[in-house]
Write a structure and sequence with these properties.
Number of helices: 3
Radius of gyration: 23 Å
Strand content: 5-15%
Mean pLDDT: 83
Distance between the termini: 93 Å
Order of helices and strands: HEEEHEH
Largest sheet: 4 strands, mixed
CATH architecture: 2-Layer Sandwich
CATH topology: Ribosomal Protein S5, domain 2
Length: 154
């Protein structure tokens, strides 16, 4: 792997578990992905994103899985400048990635990184508008109650 992207890998099992637990799962055309903002107490050597890959045995024998991982790493390397937020991402490819054209794979990864960056930017903007990361207070739900009196016997 290229030395400059070595820092952007998610490596520890605990970090993967944190993303699975606290993150959001979303789906692209060829990949499912999880992403979660990195907590302040889990800061690493890199200030930017960390990317992890999971390629399950269901996707084929070791040769196929390694090929998927090599192609995914190269697509990640090309799209990494699109993602600057301190976020942890796990990419989970589908079986169709084996036969997918590499340019389509690169586009898919770039699209995912753009959407994660946009979501992170939106969350940061809403946190700034709400104060120091506090949630906006919930508005009370009001109901209009209309009471009618039935005419009684006269």
């Amino acid at each position: 792997m290229h030395p400059s992207t070595q820092n952007f890998r998610l490596r520890k099992h605990a970090d993967y578990q944190l993303v699975y637990k606290a993150g959001r799962k979303q789906f692209g055309k060829q990949l499912a992905y999880f992403h979660a903002p990195r907590p302040a107490d889990r800061r690493s050597d890199t200030s930017g994103p960390r990317i992890g890959l999971t390629v399950p045995k269901a996707l084929g024998k070791a040769v196929d899985r390694n090929r998927i991982k090599r192609r995914m790493r190269e697509a990640i390397r090309a799209a990494l400048p699109l993602l600057t937020a301190p976020v942890d991402v796990i990419l989970h490819p589908r079986r169709s990635v084996i036969d997918l054209d590499f340019l389509q794979l690169k586009r898919e990864v770039a699209t995912i990184f753009r959407s994660i960056q946009a979501a992170t930017d939106r969350n940061a903007a809403s946190a700034r508008s709400n104060g120091a990361g506090e949630r906006a207070p919930r508005r009370e739900r009001t109901t209009n109650v209309v009471t009618t009196t039935a005419p009684g016997p006269s």
